[in-house]
Amino acid sequence: MTERQELLSGLAVTVFRLNGQFLDVAEGLARPAGLTAAHWQVLGAVTKEPLPVAGIARAMGITRQAVQRIADILAEKGMVEYLPNPAHRRAKLVAPTEEGLEAVRRIGPAHAAFADRLCEALGDDRAADVHRLLGELSTTLEALAAEEHG
């Protein structure tokens, strides 16, 4: 294997591990509010504005089918509702209900405490650098995928 192949493999394994670690943290933060990490992820995507399922999937990097399943569960629990979409008759908008927003608010204090612990452990500047670099990696992977499919 070339050095670049080893680097790519190392990046992938590290990101996969990070994904698992973030999911574990998110599960722990969401559980006391009666949510799962997946529920919180979908609710979090629509707290600022209602989005169609496809928009949530794009923003979160998960499949439309997974988002639809989770949105349906959240709708059954009364945490989101489906609204008409003026831009697309068949693709309804997912919007949080007051109950859904309250569940997200209940996560806030523990979320803030964990954010403080993480930033204190890494340092604020280093945490910001990691965030920026992960964003650059994501944008680059997206561009490379578009080149292949475009």
Automatic annotation (TrEMBL):
SMART domains in the cross-refs: HTH_MARR
Pfam families: MarR_2
Domain HTH marR-type stretches: 4-139
InterPro entries: HTH_MarR-typ (IPR000835), MarR/SlyA-like (IPR039422), WH-like_DNA-bd_sf (IPR036388), WH_DNA-bd_sf (IPR036390)
Annotated TM spans: none
Protein known as: MarR family transcriptional regulator
Organism: Glycomyces tritici
